Amino acid sequence: MLTLLSVFNLLILCGTESSAISTIIINATVGDQVLFPVPVHCGSQYGVTFLLTSPVNAKLASWGFGTPHKHALYEKRLQIHQNASLALQKVQIYDTGLYEIHIDCYDTAVMETTKTKFDLQVFEPVSKPLITINCSTKNASLSCCVSKGTNVTLYWEIQPMSGPSDRIDDKAELVISPGHEQDKYTCVVQNPISNATSDLQTLEKCNDQSSTGFVLYISISTATVLLFGLVIIIFIYIAKLTTDDKGNNTAIEKWNEETCHLSDGAIEATYITRIRSS
Ligand SMILES: *[C@@H]1O[C@H](CO)[C@@H](O)[C@H](O)[C@H]1NC(C)=O
Ligand SMILES: *[C@@H]1O[C@H](CO)[C@@H](O)[C@H](O)[C@H]1NC(C)=O
Ligand SMILES: *[C@@H]1O[C@H](CO)[C@@H](O)[C@H](O)[C@H]1NC(C)=O
Ligand SMILES: *[C@@H]1O[C@H](CO)[C@@H](O)[C@H](O)[C@H]1NC(C)=O
Ligand SMILES: *[C@@H]1O[C@H](CO)[C@@H](O)[C@H](O)[C@H]1NC(C)=O
Ligand SMILES: *[C@@H]1O[C@H](CO)[C@@H](O)[C@H](O)[C@H]1NC(C)=O
Question: Which of 102, 104, 107, 267 is the most buried (most CB within 10 A)?
Answer without folding.
Answer: 104
